[in-house]
Design a protein that fits this description.
Largest sheet: 6 strands, mixed
Strand order of the largest sheet: 6-9-10-3-11-12
Structural class: alpha/beta
Helix content: 55-70%
Number of strands: 12
Length: about 575
């Protein structure tokens, strides 16, 4: 059912190609069915009577029919490829859009490995089924039914051979489908597993090498590889058994036709040409059945893939965005949290509990607390990567839940804790948030982020290459480029999620000194582990176990908040704290 729905829904725009394929396949199949009859006429009437004019005339007709068959078959392949490849393109685009529209929680539910498999391998299986289906779904039934009719027309006495051969093949096909369907389902799951393991190892290769865990990870990959190999061997074993059995039925049927047909020719019940045509029709019938078998082999795996695609495409995200703007895009950037509570699904206690604060434009609000206290979650809620279970978050009085995705992107920009750069150039990465930024603006952002020095030293400077993930630059350089990227975007709210952790103290100090002039009247919210990063903040929020337990300036909190004082004393001696 899922496969039918997927094909019928996504094939509508290619109906003209599909109709062309069906018509051309019909022409080619009828031509193929006509040829054995013409050949029988040449044998029985032309050669038997010595009528060369009849032979030439009928041979010319056969040649014209053969050319028409070839041309129709070639054209059918072309239009079939256009339709099926277009279907694959549309499915991949929809899977990509759905995967990128999923919330963080939804994406983690599916997993990166299975999302990649569904967008590539699963789509390819459905695409190939449509391609083969357009080639065979018209020709195979007509070839089989038309062949039976034409064979009975040539010699009804041998009809029992047709029914016996087709019946045996039908039983074989049924058994094979019942065996293959669960195996193909397991195969796709194993593909998910091996993709997930491989992706995890590639992304974490540095950690693996740092802890000398190559042998352990190799074992994990070997086990995943062995599982998919075992399933593939089972599928291959069935295929290996299938074709010899089919060919055995084909050859036994051919031998039976020659044996019993020879007796009928000897008795004068049928002519040689008619027997030859009957044999050709029987071979066409069995060839059509083999086509059906081939299609049947593809259907179980395509059905499994279609179900997986339907599951993904039908997934409803826990986040929805308005299609059109219902409120003006914020221009000041005043961020307000009001009694915000948030907990991850399945968690016993909330991560954030009743958080309320205001981050004013032109001022810096810092958030500090122990590891796991919920600091990054606050920024993710502001950016609407999650929705709170209770409370509200607004920017200039506009709830973030009522903003379009474009409005959110224009209003808030996040520099994540683990900065990520995309394959391309330094300039293409810096222009990620604003494509029309000039080179002068890029250099200005780099100067503020303390990154202009190493960029000028690189070959190509702004046009210097950047590898996927930013692995061609150091952690500190990657962090500075991410900060510069946010500055180029010029949002109304800057969110820095521990974005200075890879910088040395001197670079951190220079960057913080230059940052206010670059952010201007925008709101700046900084999550930090290092106290020295936030001592000059206009407002510091101290969060402990998801609860804001203190707020004020550095000096005020040192005097009034024990949690903040403990954090400071753990990083500085008493003299520095004072």
């Amino acid at each position: 059912m899922a496969l039918i729905q997927l094909l019928t829904h996504h094939s509508r725009r290619y109906w003209h190609f599909i109709l062309a394929v069906l018509a051309l396949q019909l022409i080619a199949t009828i031509a193929a069915l006509w040829l054995p009859s013409l050949n029988a006429q040449i044998i029985d009437r032309g050669i038997a009577t010595g009528d060369t004019d009849f032979i030439w005339r009928t041979g010319g007709i056969m040649l014209a029919v053969s050319l028409a068959q070839v041309m129709a078959a070639v054209a059918a392949v072309y239009f079939g490829a256009r339709a099926s490849m277009g279907l694959g393109r549309d499915l991949r685009r929809r899977v990509y859009r759905k995967a990128t529209s999923l919330s963080t929680l939804d994406a983690s539910h599916f997993g990166a490995g299975t999302l990649i498999t569904r967008g590539t391998n699963d789509v390819q299986q459905v695409q190939m089924l449509m391609l083969m289906g357009l080639y065979f779904m018209v020709s195979a039934p007509i070839m089989a039914i038309g062949g039976i009719i034409m064979a009975l027309r040539e010699d009804a006495g041998l009809s029992w051979l047709v029914w016996a051969s087709v019946g045996v093949l039908a039983v074989i096909v049924t058994i094979l489908v019942l065996l293959l369907l669960p195996l193909f389902r397991e195969m796709q799951e194993r593909v998910d597993d091996i993709n997930g393991v491989l992706r995890e190892q590639i992304m974490g290769i540095r950690v693996v090498r740092a802890f000398v865990r190559e042998d352990f990870e190799s074992t994990r990959y070997r086990l995943a590889n062995e599982k998919i190999t075992r399933v593939s061997v089972k599928v291959g074993s069935i295929f290996v058994l299938m074709f010899p059995v089919i060919m055995m039925v084909l050859h036994i049927a051919t031998g039976a036709v020659l044996w019993f047909g020879g007796h009928r020719v000897n008795e004068g019940l049928v002519e040689v040409g008619a027997l030859t045509a009957f044999l050709q029709y029987l071979l066409q019938i069995l060839a059509a059945v083999i086509m059906g078998v081939f299609m049947t082999m593809m259907i179980p795996r395509a059905v499994v893939c279609a179900e997986r695609l339907k599951e993904l495409l039908g997934a409803t995200s826990d986040l929805s965005y308005p299609a059109t703007a219902t409120h003006p895009t914020p221009t000041a950037g005043r961020v307000e949290f009001t009694n915000v509570t948030f907990g991850f699904p399945g968690a016993e206690i909330p991560v954030i509990k009743g958080a309320s604060f205001v981050a004013e434009p032109g001022r810096t609000t810092a958030i500090i607390g122990s590891t796991g206290s919920g600091k990054s979650t606050l920024l993710n809620l502001a950016l609407r990567l999650f929705d709170p279970q209770e409370g509200s978050i607004t920017v200039d009085g506009v709830p973030v839940a009522q903003m379009t995705r474009a409005q959110l992107a224009q209003t808030l920009t996040l520099v994540p804790q683990r900065p990520y750069l995309f394959a391309g150039t330094i300039a293409s990465n810096l222009r990620f948030g604003r494509e029309n930024a000039t080179d002068d603006e890029l250099w200005a952002a780099l100067r503020v982020a303390q990154g202009d020095g190493f960029v000028r030293e690189r070959e190509g400077q702004l046009d210097g290459p950047v590898s996927q993930g930013g692995t061609s630059v150091s952690g500190g350089q990657r962090q500075r480029l991410s900060i510069a990227r946010a500055l180029v975007a010029k949002p109304r709210v800057y969110l820095f999620d521990d974005s200075f952790s890879a910088l040395d103290v001197a670079t951190d100090a220079r960057l913080r000194a230059a940052l206010p002039s670059a952010t201007g009247a925008a709101t700046t919210i900084i999550v930090a582990q290092r106290v020295s990063t936030i001592t000059d903040a206009d407002q510091i929020l101290v969060i402990d176990d998801g609860v804001i337990v203190g707020r004020g300036t550095h000096t005020e909190l040192l005097e009034s908040n024990s949690v903040y004082r403990e954090i400071v004393e753990s990083q500085m001696d008493a003299e520095e704290a004072a």
